[in-house]
Structures are given as C-alpha cells and as structure tokens.
Amino acid sequence: MGVAGARGPEAAAPAVDAVICRCEAVALGALVAARNAWAIDDLRQLKLLTRAGMGMCQGRVCQPLLESLARSWGWDPSGALAARPPTRPWAMGQVLPESSEPEHG
Amino acid sequence: MANPLVRFWLDGEERQGPLGVPVGLVLYGQGERVLGWNEVTGQPRGLYCGIGHCFECRLEIDGVRDQRACLVPLAAGMRVCRQVPPTPLAFEDAP
Amino acid sequence: MTGRAPQVVVVGAGVIGAAVTYVLSSAGVRVTLVDRGPLGGGTSSRCDGNVLVIDKDPGYQAEMAMLSQNLLREWAGDLGDIEYRRPGSYLALAGEDEEEPARAWVDAQCREGLAFRYLEYEETHRVMPDLAADVPGSVYSPTDSTLNPLAYVAALLAKSRHRGAQVRARSPVAEIRVEQGRAAGVGLADGTALVADAVVVAAGVWTPAVLAPLGVRLPIRPRRGHLVVSTKGPRYGDVKVMEFGYLMAKFGRERVVPPDVERFGVALVYEPTRAGNFVLGSSREFAGMDTEPDPAVLHAIVKRALRFYPGMARATVLRGFAGLRPWTPDHVPVVGPVPGVEGLYVAAGHEGDGIGLAAVTGRLIGDFILERTPPLPVAPLAVGRFQEETAEWA
Amino acid sequence: MSPKRFDAVVVGAGPAGLAAAGVLSRAGYAVLVVDEAPVPGGRLWAQWHRLGSTVWDGAHEVDRLVSALAPGVQWRLSTSVEAIAGSAAEGFQVDLARGGAVGRAVLLATGAAEVPLPIPGWTLPGVLAVGAAQTLWKGWHIPPGRRGIIVGTNPLGFAVAQELLGAGVESLAIVMPPPSMATAHLGSLPQQWDRLFELAAGAPRWAQPVARLLHGRAGWQRMAMRLYPPGGLAVSGARLQLRRQALAVEGGDCVEAVTLQSVDAAGLPAGAPWTEPADFVLLAGGLRPLGELTAQAGVQRGHYDGLGGEVPLVTARLATSRAGLFAAGNVLGVESARVAIAQGRLAGWGMVAHLGGSVPADRWREAEGALELARRDAPFAFQPGLGAARLRHRADSEREVGP
Fold first, then answer.
1. Share of chain C above pLDDT 90, in %
2. Gap between the Cα atoms of C115 and C110, Å rounded
3. Between B and D, how many CB-CB pairs are < 8 A?
4. What's the ipTM?
C-alpha cells in the first residue's frame, strides 16, 4: 500500500473508527452504539457488553480511555474496572507439581 | 559495552542478536515490526508499550506461549515464534 | 384486576427480574423494574451462560429446565444477538467407578422422555479429542444451550422498555408497602413511592434481606462460585464439557478427589466462548458475600481442568471472577406468592441455574399475576415449603 | 511447598523499590525484591536530564541504588505478582508465578503506565508509546526509526524528543492529538496549549518567559497561536507543530504515513488533511499511576488529576490504609525519579518502624527533607495542578488514614 494509506485523508473526520480497546478491537463507535442500543449507564456494563477492557492486557492500556469516556458521559467510573487477581496472566501449566518453582537467591 | 551476538531462531529462521537485550527490542531493531496478529481482526500488531503492560509483543519463546518479548532477554539458542491466532470455532447447533 | 391494566413493581434487575418484566410487559402489564445498583450488576454478570438440562435431577427439575429451554428458543428470535446457540453438552467421567451411575443417570432421564445418550470410549474421544486418554466415557444431552448472560439481561430489558416497562437502576428499595394484607407498592430510598397491584421480589441472594422487614424468612444463602477465563489462545474443542462429578458436588454426594478440589467444591466445566476465550469452572463454597476471587480456588479449578485436558498446560489464564449463587436447601428455586400477603411474589433461589431457569420463572410469575394456568405443578416451588429450615436459618 | 517468609517484600525494582530495599536491608531485615523486568531499575535507567549545570543520569542512579543494598537481599526478577492477600498479622501472601512469598510488610512500588492517544491506525506496528522509544534508544541504542511523529505535548514526549538526538532520526515532529471523547481528560486544543504554557516543559530557555506570559491569558494566547509558524518551531531537535493535529496513522503491515491537518488559532480544523511519510509514531499521552495491586489489595484510594489518576491515601510515612502495606514512587502520583527515590527511603523507614525497629529522629528528618528537596528541584511537573493535588491528597490522607 502506498503512502496515501488505505483510508485516505478525507476519511478522517470524527474518529469513531479509532480503536479504544486494542486487545478486543473495540472502536469508539462501537462503544457509543452499544451504549445507545442497550441503554447502558454504567462502565462495567459497557465493558461486559462490548468486551472493551476484557482482553489480553487486562484493561491496563485502555482503562484511562474508558474512564475518560465514562466521565464525558456523566458516569462515575470509580471502581467500575477494579483490578482483580490475577493482576497478570499466568500459564495454566504452572499448577502442575513437576513444574514447581526453582529456588532463587 | 556492546553485547556479544548470539544465535537464535525466529519462526525457524536462524538469526543473530545481542545477548541480554529483550527479544522484542532486538526484533524491532532488525526491522521485524510485526510480532503477531490480533485474534479479533487478524491485523498485525507489534511492540507498543515496551514495559510489559500491553502484551502486544507476546511471542512463544522456548515453547512457552504469551511471553512478553519486551521483558525476555535474548539468550543463545532461543527459539522464538510468532503466535498465529486460532481460527474461530464452528459453533454448530446440535441436530 | 379488571378495568385497567395491572401495575407491577419488580425488585431486582438480574436475569430473573428481567425475565419477569419481559413476560409481564409482553402481556400488556405496566411494569416498573427497580434495582439498587446497575442493571444486571449482581450474580447475572458474574456467572456463565449455561442453559442446561444435563445436570438436573430426572423428573420435576429436568422438566422445568426443559420448559425453560423451549421458552428461550422461542424468545431468542425476539431478543436479537445474545450469543445464543444450542451445541448440546457433555459430562465426562473421571473414572470407571462413575460408569455405572452415569448409565443409570442416562436411563432415568430417557425414561422421562429426554434425549440423553451414554457415549462409549471411542465416541467420547472422537467428539472430544483433547480429553485425557483415561476418560472412560461421557453423557450427552443434545438440547443444552448457552448464551451471553449480561447480553440476555440487557436484551430482555431493552424489549421490555420498548413495550412500556419502566426500568430504574440505582434505586434502592426502602420498603415494600403492605396495606390491609395486600402488597401496595414499594417506597424507594429517594422517597419516591411506586404504587402497584403486585410486587415481585427477584433479588437473588439479596432476597432474604429485602423480605426480612415483612417478617418473611427464606433460607436462601450465597453459594460462591469461581470461574477462570483463558486468553484467546489454543482451544480444546468446540463443545461444552462438564465432569460427571459436577453432579456429585452439586448435590453434596460423595466424591473421591484431591483435598483442594474437595474443599472448594471444584468440578470441571469447560466452555468455549464466541469471543475466542474459554471459560473454566467451577467451585461451590459458602463464603459470605465476598466476590473477590481467591487465587487458591482459581488454581484448584485449573488443576482440575488439567486432569481432563492435559494439553491445557499450554494455555494462559487471563482472569478469574466470582459470583454468588442463591442457594436453597432443596436446590429448587422459590417461585410463587408469599402466604399471607396478597399480591406479593418471590422469584429467587435459582442457585446456579438462574440463566437457564429465567424464562420459565418469568412465565410462572406471569401466570400467577395474570391468573393463567401454569405449565407445570407449582407446589415444589412454593414459598412456604421451608417452614422448618426457616427456623434454622433465620 | 510452603512459601518463603520475609520481613519485607518490595514489589517493583524501580527507584522507589530499590531505595526502600536499601533502607530495609541495611537495617538488617530480610528483603525480597520482585519485578517483572529481567533487570532492576524500572524506568529509571532510561532517564536522563539536566539538573542545573550537571547531568542527572538514571543509569548511574540504578548502579548507586543497587550497590547500596546490603548483601543477602533476595531477588525474584522476571516475575509478576498475581495477587496480594492476607494481612500484617498473618503475613501478606504475595502470589508469584511458580510459588509465592510471605512478607510481614509489603511495599507497593509499581510505578506508572502510559495513557494512550487512540487515533485511528494506532494499533499498527511502529506506533509506540513514547516510553518504549526511550527504552529502545536510551536503554539499548536501538533507533525507533528514521522519520517520526510524536503525537501529544506531554512532557515525556519532549524529553524523549531530546533524547532521540543522535539516534539517527532524520525528521521528528511533535503534533497535537485530535480531540476525542475517550481523551476528554486532555480538553480542547487551546486547553492543551495552555497546559503546555503552564508546564513550559521542553521549551527552549528563551521561550519560558513567553510561555509564562501566555499561560491563562486566552486572548494573548490566541494571538500567539495566530502568529505561530505553520511549519512549527525547532525544539530539542524536533519541530514543535502546535497548529497541526494527527488525524490517523496509515499503513498496511506497519506505519507508512500520518494524516495531518492544520488547525486555526482556536484549535479548529482548517483546510484539507494531507499525509506525510513516517516510519514510526510515538504517542505521548501522559503517565498514570499503575495501581492494580493497590486496588486489588484493597487499600483506600482517591482520584487526583494532578497526580495522574487514582492513588492510595497514605500517611506522611507512606503507610496505606492497610497496616503493613506501604506505597512509594509513581504509584502515589506521577513525579520525578528523584522524588520516587526519596519516597522509597521514607517508606523504607516507615516499614522499619512497622517491623518493630527503632528509627532515629534524624533519619525521619533526613528522609522527609530529601523528599521536599527533590520536589523543589523537579525540572518540570508531569501534570498541571500537581502542587494543589498533592495538598488535597495530603489532607484527604490525613483525614482517612492518619498523619
């Protein structure tokens, strides 16, 4: 593809096609549409119904964007995307006894 | 202090890279911008945050999946593979 | 209730309250649904989407579940995309000692007219090639279905609104008003009074607290369950698989399993989701109202999954969460009128089957309020059936 | 296998964690330091800035902090913390990949994360959070590319632009992000300009009085923006193009170009967009405290824009609302690395006291004085309103968790 890009400058107006959640590939437009279609008024609901913030990074990247969006809609986002264990993904194989930890230090 | 070069494999292809430098950064420096593909869209993804938060640089390293390449130092003989997203499952209703 | 459309207040906007609201508003009843928090914010957004018959006791419970499945199938077309599908489900056996009870289970269900099958070794491993080689067989139920639970709630509410229902989130109920032995409406914490001909309490594990001020005691207790979600990596088959021992855990029967599996009531549930992740369950504990996931339980669930799916050692855990099942002593929900208070109904206590039994529950409450004939006997669901236990739990 | 027991577990081997581990280990306590990076230092060793007439080099600071640890400090590097449970009474369980550890006290020093700027195309390979470019070049001498565009006028972006001098970058421009509902926290472009003038960060020395003059004066500012050269001003090796916004990143498999558009003096789009070739894009959306573990561990928190987001409430000695859990560094608010080091020392002494050790009065004074000094000497503030936010955080903390 050439330097002009697939979208072209003319496509650039309001960025509803900007991805907000990279992992689940949820665009701003999809969040707006879901909010309207389901009459959502809560950030946790928006997350669960669109999957924004539910991907591989566990919401670490898009959380401030979702919270900012929530505030711009007059929602209180505090606690809606609360961190739960595990705070990092882990390999299922690590529960097997034969892979128990080597001593460090 | 230059790090010594060691051999490693990317998707089965032999490479050389500086020992101890995080794999994801080594690959970036070698022009390998695409480290994987998003499972939802199939679009290419690569190094983004460089600090272990975003998981966009995740690779299979020495047989272990979902390793953050920005955090794993290159070691001699390392086998690094890009992870290909699984094809969507066919959800057929039972007859 | 003649001359004008009846007016009903439903307390609790989880899947049960949403289904009740959907049924009533579809019948032209003026419904107001209230919830103290966001819609679907309780157990209905902390659960899986199973709509099962396979784990129900043959007889009444299986019949009720079957009715709900059929209703849901009718509703699905109206509700839009709620990730509804009917892949059937399987119970995998952990050992040869489970073969005989499993065959007996299948026979009993078949005698009741359900299409269960026992799958021998070869067929089991042909359908589920990722299962551990020592799984001796499995049970298959073709009608079992699945959906996205919160999407289900949201769709029920969207359709209900469309039919005139009022839905009020973040509106805690201060009191259920009873006048001359009749439910007269509810008073909200903000001072609003909602007048009604009937009040339905569908508040899941919070139901006893809602009813306590009226002197109504129900032995519904929070039975916590954990679920584990994988990343979108490799998957281990496209069918939903539970272990036969799941039934043992559910009904508190004897099982020979490792200590942490026993302690947390862990039994395998494997469910691939449309999003590309898979969900692993399950656990059963009485641990109060705490829904903060316990890493030890997540580990026990994964350990159990690896017993059935050794290849899963390569998979990655993305997150875990916990929800509170509204448990009842006989594992049967409480659906029906409250004796002594005309116009007051309860629809709660569905333990782990709220998603699956929501449709039939909505239908039954609708039948009570609209004085229609219910599709199955209601005595086993009666509010008053716990007289003795009530004393114990009160 | 039962987990190993320590007096203190330090989560995060950045400036705050290392400084605390130094205090604790020299006071004779058994310390475990955990970090998911393979080497200690966190973001510290990619940092570098002028401090008066000298250069402050993060890499030297890492060496100093590590060599100041007493022997016997245990390490779990390349290790993530999955959860923190328990209490000071029974010991905090720190769940780690493959096993765990128990600490009588735990320091949460998990630093900060970058806030993205979600412009269309930002998922393309070659679009980096600005800190990643810092790690690439300052950390490992890997240039991020040849033609780059930095989106956003966050101080970190200016710092990285300066650091990339010598990285072989042929052209580098700093442009504005387009307004978006998801970045409502940034405000309109004029608000972002005003914030830039307030921070006056990265501006050449001669520009600083001008910036101070313009801050808060909308009329003057509009005039200045009207006069602002369309091609931008040269700042630290980059062209600062305040009257351009990046509408989208273009490319097939990786970054090939950026679509730009001019804005007028009021920050509104003016004229047709065009594309300029680029092979890397850096997003400078700012930093926020990475508080996952503080949230998960259930400590009391508050939201402060000036500190970068949600942070734990802490006593003056950095104890959180849960006895035995301490916090230090950027997790308490985005400030300089020197502030993080000073906070780490203070938290270290706080943990010594919690563990039953005696802390001489002059140690407290020294640690508190160092923190004050580091704040006074900070080359710039990462967010506007930092001072006011700090005061509010202090007052709220005093009320909720004690002095």
1. 87
2. 6
3. 81
4. 0.94
